[in-house]
Task: structure prediction
Amino acid sequence: MKKVVVAGATGLVGFAALKQFAARAECEVIGLSRRQPHETHGATCLPLDLTDAAACRQVVGGLTGVTHLVYAALFEMPGLVAGWQAQQQIATNDQMLRNLLEPLLAASPDLRHVTLLQGTKAYGVHVRPMKVPAREGRSELRSQANFYWAQEDYLRARLADSDCGWTVLRPVLIVGEAIGGAMNLIPALGVHAALARETGRVLPYPGGADRVGQAVDADLLAEAIAWAGEAAAARNEVFNVTNGDVFVWRNVWPAIAEAVGMEAGEPAPFSLRTWLEPAGQAAWDGVRTRFGLVSPGLSAFVGQSMEYADYQMRHGHDEHGAPSIVSTIKLQQAGFHAVMDTEAMFRKWFEVFQRKRLLPSPG
Result:
């Protein structure tokens, strides 16, 4: 039997991991998050603010017999992109991991594995053109202030003399199911399409100049997390994780438009953050009422994901961006081989949101 704690259970990664482990008969799953997940999938979910050290000692100190920790919690500052280099963000994320892991190790001394999530900011994607392909151990930008390094260095040192192993996973753009997250594009693009559809059936491409990039399906990433917790080849290693292909937003836009019941139109630059203005929020409330949706108001539904969508689709940029490509050779050689077509991924998640009445049906 495994007893798995998932920190950040309402986020893209945490929710997918919660679902992945809860579906396994041999797993007892405990989710930790400030908000209650919109679905628990049979897991026990406990409210916890990881910035509160005293609360962590009280709640986590009672979690005995834990064998695996999936640390997918994340603190993002208002403004999102600007906060990625802020010292406050670095210090807060560093302390959150410590607040959780210290009482957990005391309560569950037989903890076997910790999975820590990072991303392509480890390669400086937010501050410079990336080396292509970016490789683990060869392309990191350690000179750039980043909470990844604070968390990773602490984890390596803290578990150095223990029987508990660790794995760092570096996914690229993650697409999946989360409500109110900082970086989930399905609610953001879905709202954009629903509001644009009020005036027509054509969905113009809102982004800027192209950049070749990669994505990863949240469920595929959860599979990688489960694999990492058991595979000897994953112990104390760092891996990039992707779907296995590359994409350009403008080229997958027709698949996205079809998934929301519209036709892809010509490029028409538009900042999705504009929808967060009062008129956009009122329009979304009207859509929710007309279609009988169960999704919340706009801000609660999309979080900071409108700004993240603008960043990902390079709104306001007129020149082609440097490619953002990582190598997954190390992961494949270690034994994880799952892949997914990125267009199919977008179609999958729009269908999930529509089926659950979080977004309007495409009809």
Remarks:
- Residues 36 and 47 are 7 Å apart (CA to CA).
